[in-house]
Amino acid sequence: xxxxxxxxxxxxxxxxxxxxxxxxxxxxxxxxxxxxxxxxxxxxxxxxxxxxxxxxxxxxxxxxxxxxxxxxxxxxxxxxxxxxxxxxxxxxxxxxxxxxxxxxxxxxxxxxxxxxxxxxxxxxxxxxxxxxxxxxxxxxxxxxxxxxxxxxxxxxxxxxxxxxxxxxxxxxxxxxxxxxxxxxxxxxxxxxxxxxxxxxxxxxxxxxxxxxxxxxxxxxxxxxxxxxxxxxxxxxxxxxxxxxxxxxxxxxxxxxxxxxxxxxx
Length: 265
Prior knowledge:
By secondary structure, the chain is mostly beta strands. The protein has 1 helix and 20 strands. Strands 1, 3, 5, 9, 11, 12 and 13 form a 7-stranded mixed β-sheet that branches. The chain is globular, with a radius of gyration of 22 Å.
């Protein structure tokens, strides 16, 4: 028998909980001196018993995701030294769930600005058949899921949109690309929406595309975002890209850019 060993690490960037052997929600939590406790729900949608552990990992933001933080970056980024985390280990029966609690340590006040660590949930490897063959090839797969926990002191966050481009994907369909440029000491969070108002009498604005869970972090100058529009051509009208706040920023518009679209003649 041939045995292959694989390890899968997933950093959540999508709108829904991780789709693997474990589910973790919500996608982020924010702690302050007033909100000193937060919780996550960890559930087991699989048909096997899950054994695992909960720890911290420090990740630096990049233009398109995250990368492991180096020692120098961690010293000014990590929220973990200010927080407690329970439980550290768990066992979940199929269909069961538990609460994972994060607390600001007693007597500790958040430092000015913002700190961030990622809650990391890892399960023990489970042998999984990945190909039916006479050799019986199998893989032992350990799954990890991480979500950001933000610790905030005094300060604020804002962001602007830049480098907006109308491009085409590999199938020739239009997509809009933009950079979220954060400023201030707090990260921003929300969604990007692309709407189009046709140059026709009585036309109403149409929602062409949405990108949820868009964060702008102070440790990277830009976050690059693409929104597929699903059209080969838009016709004549005005295309608007808007960065709308979510979570604690609900109701706020960070930035908005409008562009006149004129089809070639």
